[in-house]
Amino acid sequence: LHDALPIYAAQERSRGGEIIVARRNLDRFYEAASACDLHESDPRWGRALLSEAIVDRGFGDFDRSLDKVLKLEQLASSHGWKGLLGAAKLSRANHHQDHFQISAARPLYREALALFDGEASRRWEVSTWNNLGLSHAYSGERAAAQRCFESALERAKALTDFRGLALAHEGLSSLALSRA
Q: φ, ψ for residue 35 (rounded to 5)?
């Protein structure tokens, strides 16, 4: 089992809309993990669960996705997977925001930001700042939204995270256009 390459491939494919290919990548991971008797405390299980939640969300199965995110929160808490716990809170916050439950989403975004630590969490951090910016923009809190998008932009530049850069620029552009 070569690290978590099939898991990361699944995440990238699902973000690009290739949900069926993403599912195949996850299946490859599970086959390899079973063949290697990967211990349940290995964080690759958590990454796979997060990827499954992303894939389910891509298929429009929001309830199933949320169930997996909640399971990931439990596993991450019990195994000390701090970054994955942050990613689970980010995913749960996104679920609430997708259902226009901004007051439930915002504290989860803040909790996620507090949990992210180290290089592996940096892209999640960019995503969290962008989504927190959206939550402020949806509520008409332009100054707060701008600060969040600028935070995302700064971090995305440091990572050369083109997706994060694009989303931060889109958020800032929307704010600028709404002022006109």
A: -65, -30
pTM, two decimal places:
0.86
Strands (E), 42-180: none
- Tell me 122's DSSP state: H
Which residues, at least 6 apart from 112, have a Cβ–Cβ distance to it below 8 Å?
A: 86, 87, 89, 90, 93, 124, 128
Chain-centre distance for alpha carbon 149: 16
* 28 contacts 8 by C-beta, under 8 angstroms: no
pLDDT in tens, 36-59: 777 888 888 888 889 889 888 888
Work out the number of other CB atoms within 10 angstroms of the CB of residue 178.
Answer: 11
Least Cα distance to 175 among 146, 144, 148, 154 occurs for: 146
**pLDDT of 93-145, one tens digit each?**
999 999 999 999 999 999 999 999 877 788 899 999 999 999 999 999 999 99
